[in-house]
Sequence to fold (198 residues):
Amino acid sequence: MPKSVELVLYSAVWPVLAEREIGRLVHALHGLVVEAHHIGSTAVPGLSAKPVVDLLLVVRGVAELDGREAAFRHLGYRCRGENGITGRRYYTLDDISVRRQFQVHCFGAGSREIERHLAFRDYLRTHPQTARAYEAEKRRCRELHPDDSNAYCDAKAGWIAGVLPLALAHFAGRSVVDGDSSATGEGDAGIQSDTGGG
Fold:
């Protein structure tokens, strides 16, 4: 069910919350996690975002992860399967008022989705002009769809798609010219328009 779209100013608390939650998840999953990352707009200093912290867990394998759903449920998470991205396992944690707090995107080691998520985050971190353009796009999309988070994510999908090739090239260490800030891509944390943290 679509939710209203709330964008708030960046908070230095987000990385602290991310680190704490990563610790809980890594402990609960007993050696299954290979890497853990804070992703999405809440991981980009200075960028306004929906106040939902997105995490990416790289695991040994999603089949093994499927056998650990009880660990997520024990921590209060809802297990949502792939939820629109092939090979992903997606989990959400809401507070007692049913306000989303965390979204966890899990991929098996070697998944190409891992690079896409990290590249987009890192590109925004190192290209402030592009991050400001993304923030303006998010505000535009929120104005279009203030009460429909799914439509909001879909609306900004073209913007991310335009920036993602530059982000991937930058992440791979190739020399690129910073993209025109009017470039047009998809949901932030989820990179596809399903969930995005921001």
Q: What stands out?
A: The two ends are 17 Å apart (CA to CA). The helical segments are 13-28, 62-66, 69-74, 112-126, 128-144, 149-155, 157-171. The CA atoms of residues 127 and 178 lie 8 Å apart.
